[in-house]
Design a protein that fits this description.
Elements (H helix, E strand, L loop, with lengths): L3 H9 L8 E4 L7 E4 L1 H4 L9 H7 L4 E3 L3 H15 L6 E5 L2 E4 L11 H16 L5 E4 L2 H8 L7 E4 L4 H6 L11 H9 L5 H5 L3 H8 L3 H7 L16 E12 L2 H22 L1 E12 L4 E7 L7 H12 L9 E13 H16 L1
Parallel strand pairs: 1-3, 6-7
Antiparallel strand pairs: 1-2, 4-5, 8-11, 9-10, 9-11
Family: Belongs to the DNA polymerase type-Y family.
Subunit structure: Monomer.
Main location: cytoplasm
Length: about 350
């Protein structure tokens, strides 16, 4: 989807159309969750501090997020996808991979399917979508950005290796800022540079990821579209209005984060065995701790107890704290979690 959250807000409020819009907190310590294309022309981007965004674009209009609305629109979009294939792998509320090798509706090409899906989304939601069409996930993802907004692009098997050659490695989906910096230090700046490295040399520097990097440099990606891919973690973070220095200030925030994580797990029927807490300081350095349990956590109180035990040693901090986070991972479905809970209670009783 094109600037999804911001586009929904502009759709629902005509006064916002054509104006630079940021979804997120307008306060001093807020962060931009999404920016309209009008705002992006000023350099405003998602994850940017609100104060920076305001500096770049004094006319920026901040709108609080409405995640219930975004989820409802996302469900409409996925209902459109489901008319064409059962092989849908969501990446987020506004993005997904579709395998249309065997489509539920007869069409001459994947290109025609993408065009029809985009038209249906526009007709049924009033929003625009962009599409990338290719023979693997890596290239389809790259292609989806080529003609944004409201466009699509096709990378054929013949085009694939050439398309990758000139692309900077930081543009590769799957190579983050830290890995891109490491590659730059090794003289790898483009797909062609990456292609010059053999598997053995890549493995020495990048370990298990070497095979993926070796493949994508050649336009090869064997990963299937995984419609039943399990979620790996559920987390929540809070950027604080002011830096905090005392445990009494941190505890109410921690309780709020625990509530959000536990509620999200309960809605999905999931339990988790690993709790991680995150602390970001005033100078943007961050740290954290994690604890893994033998069985999935049985209750919100149990999650809170572990989170408190992990977070407490960070206080009092050497400098102010600007962000706290809690994540639950090693997730299991409700049935597994329930059996694990009984086991944990039996241990406690003995």
């Amino acid at each position: 989807m094109d600037a999804f959250y911001a586009s929904v807000e502009q759709r629902d409020d005509p006064a916002l159309r054509g104006r630079p819009v940021a979804v997120g907190g307008s306060r001093q310590r807020g962060v931009v969750a999404a920016a309209s294309y009008e705002a992006r022309q000023y350099g405003v981007r998602s994850a940017m501090p609100s104060v920076t965004a305001r500096r770049k674009c004094p006319e920026l209009v901040f709108v609080p997020p409405r995640f219930d609305v975004y989820r409802a629109v996302s469900a409409q979009i996925h209902a459109v996808f489901a008319r064409y294939t059962k092989l849908i792998q969501p990446l987020s509320l506004d993005e997904a991979y579709l395998d249309v090798t065997v489509s539920l509706i007869a069409h001459p090409s994947a290109t025609a399917i993408a065009e029809e899906i985009r038209a249906a989304i526009r007709a049924e939601t009033g929003l625009t979508a962009s599409a990338g069409v290719s023979y693997n996930k890596f290239l389809a993802k790259l292609a989806s950005d080529v003609r944004k907004p409201n466009g699509q692009y096709v990378i054929t098997p013949r085009m694939g290796p050439r398309f990758v050659e000139a692309l900077p490695v930081e543009r590769f989906h799957g190579i983050g800022p830290a890995t891109a910096a490491r590659m730059h230090a090794l003289g790898i700046r483009t797909g062609l540079d990456l292609r010059a490295w053999d598997m053995e040399r890549l493995a020495r520097h990048f370990g298990r990821a070497a095979a993926f990097y070796h493949g994508i440099a050649r336009g090869v990606d064997e990963r299937p579209v995984e419609p039943d891919r399990k979620r790996k973690s559920i987390g929540a973070e809070r950027t604080l209005e002011q830096d905090i220095h005392h445990w009494e200030q941190a505890l109410p925030v921690l309780d709020l984060l625990v509530d959000r994580v536990w509620e999200a797990c309960a809605k999905r029927g999931l339990g988790g065995r690993t709790v991680t807490v995150k602390v970001r300081y005033a100078d943007f350095r961050h740290t954290g701790r994690a604890r893994s349990l033998a069985a999935p956590l049985a209750s919100r109180a149990a999650l809170r107890e572990v989170a408190v035990g992990l977070m407490r040693p960070f206080f009092p901090p050497e400098m102010g704290v600007r962000l706290l986070g809690v994540t639950l991972s090693n997730l299991d479905d409700g049935e597994t979690a329930a059996s694990g809970t009984q086991f944990a209670l039996a241990l406690d009783a003995s």
